[in-house]
Amino acid sequence: MPAKGNADSRVSALPIFAGFAGLAIVANLVTGIGYVALHDGASRSAAPSRPVAGALPAPSTATVNSLLQRRSHAVLAHDRAAFLATVDPSGQAFRAGQEVLFDNLAEVPLTGWKESLADTRPAVAADDGWTARLRLAYRLRGYDRRELVYTEYLTFDRRPGTGWVVSGDGAAHGLRDDPQIWSGGSLKVVRGRRSIVLAEDGAVAGQDARARTAELRDIADRLDQGVGIVSGVVGDRWSRRVVALVPATEQKAEELVGDVRNLGDIAALATVTGDAGGTATGEDRVVISPTAFGRLNALGRHVVLTHELVHVAMGGARDGKTPMWLIEGLADYVGYKDAGVATKAAGRELKNLISSGDMPSAPPGRTEFEGSGDRLSAAYEEAWLACRMIAERYGEDTLVRLYRTAEGEPGASGDPRIEDRALRTVLGIGSARFDEEWRSYVRGVLS
């Protein structure tokens, strides 16, 4: 797993060729895996401040805890009046946002929801109230195996007749909550047999409400279908359930996945979220980027969502050690399997490289997945064909066993001995022999 708070977040690219996007040229839409570094509470918390002149006296810890307990209980009990009774009635804009928040949460199948003080010292103590850093913990019923933990900020103020209430968040002081799909406009929830889609209900590129609902239902249906496809290859050693987040804008998608890269050409991304508690666990989510995903036709959506499900099933967003050509190649192999995609069409960038005399000597390493453009697309094609070759010559079960063997090998990220040991253990050949067979295979299928 990438270290939290650093630049080791990973994004994978799946080139979507013209047949997917309905275009006359290659559309470099990509999918990805990554770790949400921004969900590390320690990296986002503010240093406790000293009270400023005119600041209100701080509420007691017991008072704040009581307010937070009332809010948490109201969320789980679907008691709107009790929830809003904790909110300042005079702050109309903030109160309206809290009304939307409660209504959104009422649509989500929560099996737990708890706001609590993360620090008894104020993040900010000023004349507009006492702002505290909080620990938000929740779990989605039927999907999350563990509690997800995030950081948020609330401001507490004392009002005549009502006592201490929640009067704002930390935005006025530059303190940002860990983003949530339900923290903006209205939320729409679509349930599948093995999937749940949480989506902002805003219009996307002029969509009307009916088109938005149909799109979300299509996503849920494709994820349900994809669960069976993925399990048919990698087995049932995973939850076989998935949560998809569908924001209305690229900006919101970028907030949800962390500052990985601009998502303008990324159709979807599998990520791990909810680790502000520092336990290095969290849960998998598939985040869909609206503009790029909206450019895909039915075939493209099938391949992209199946690809992301492989990352969820195999823990790709948590894996900092398995060779990237296995992580991305297996996802592409399952995504393309039985999709009716011609090999030369899906491998066109690699074919062009070979035609220009630039035949790679081996499947791509991690650095090859950090580029852009045609060379990045070629890296994914190389990985895909490496995994397809293994499946054809040794069987799908052997391909999956190779992945899991490499994942379990000792060593650090990028250590070439991991790949060599796994290949010798599972296929009976070392890296040099494998690379030779792969080059011959690639030339054969793309010639």
From TrEMBL:
InterPro entries reported for this sequence: Uncharacterised_BSP
Pfam families: BSP
Transmembrane segments: 12-38
Record keywords, A-Z: Membrane, Transmembrane, Transmembrane helix
Protein name: Basic secretory peptidase family protein
Originating organism: Actinoallomurus bryophytorum
